[in-house]
Amino acid sequence: MAGCEVEEPLLSTICDQDGIKNEENSQTSFSGDVDEIVPVNGIKDLVREFYTESKKQWVLAGPISFTYFSQYCIMATTLVVVGHIGTIQLAAVSVENTVIADFSYSVLLGMSSALETFCGQAFGANQLDMLGIQMQRSLLILNIMALAMLSLFIFATPILKLLGQTASISTEAGKFSLWMIPQQFAYAMMIPTAKFLQTQSRVMAISVIAAAALGLHVFLTWFFMLKLGWGLAGAAMTLNVAWWFIAIAQLLYIIAGNCGEAWSGFSWKTFEKLWVFLKISIASAVMISSEMWYITVLTLMIGNLENAEVSVDASSICVNILGLTSMVGLGNNAATSVRVSNELGSEHPGRAKCSEVKLLVEELTPLLGLCILFTNVQYTLLGVAVGVGWQVPVACINIACYFLLGIPSGVLMAYKFKMDIKGLWYGMLLGLCLQSCILLWKICVADWNKEAYFAKERLKEWRGITDAGGT
What we know:
Layout: H1 8-14, H2 23-29, H3 42-82, H4 87-124, H5 129-148, H6 150-154, H7 156-162, H8 167-179, H9 181-198, H10 203-227, H11 231-258, H12 274-302, H13 308-325, H14 327-345, H15 355-388, H16 391-416, H17 420-445, H18 448-463
């Protein structure tokens, strides 16, 4: 099948009530509307194009990677300090973070990737007034979703027990979950504003804010957890303060007038076509959240193994190492989605291309290295998918790779072949490998001129502009 024919149903959902052209008409009308792909002749042209695009990519990816690294270090700092309190406390925070909080965060982050597609393409097309409206829609939807997921935090203890976690871990994680409720609403505010700024390449602002938040968090963690000895209550308080600092600072930066025409204030247009935006956000959530959900399932399964506390602690360390080493990949993910969506929007398709714990961590290190490699490749490929607007087909690919291959094979190796935690990680590696290969193939066979046309039609239909030129 053609690489971009799969995506038309996604585009059709954006404004199906307005009536989008059928596929036959679109194929006959797009050829002259966008810049054709300029061929690369010889090594010299290839090197020139690679250098030009790499420079643009890293101008974005560098600050974004630093932002993600700083934000990731907020949680990592907390885990390091909690690890000195006790294994039960470390396991409890790890389970709350990877099962309860990460599930909620992954849904919010995934739903926000619709904002990357729409805002990125609108910015590329110089339709700046659309960006603020889209951000407000995302803010509204994500806050409603955060409210809807409160029950996960309120009933975390019985949920974790039902999922097979030990009573001691479930009880401590349940208490910590209640204290972490404010963090979820900070995420709902922080993520859309960050995407809004990223799609305009205003990445230095969010990196400075993230660095300031990390510095504040390190000081508060030292003061409340180490000096005053507040334990898990102190950990929860410092985390909530750090995330709300980021959320408020980014919003203030936007409404202070630093974004020009992209922000013209709050508008009632936010409530128009919300259902259409929500449908795309849901598809985005499934696409982006698949890997995070797999980590959640992995943690739950590890909690059912023998010596659960040690296994969970070891896996938590490996997951955090994987997360820290994936920050460059996440930066490239965001930068790639910005570059691809901007170029398609501007009709340039050619540019869019403990000692027990320590021992177990050492045994997992080779698998961790391979996961780091494939995770960073995967993030870049997902950035292309988000920039183009392939959320629906890629969501299906991710679900198939992780939940039809990764989990069953991991369970088989862990329990049937007695490989324990290593078997579960082997399963994750298989899912990552297959997903990366399929995404790479899909990108290679895509018709980028046609994708640029679809981006143009998407922006026209979203604004309600007809072929006759009315509004």
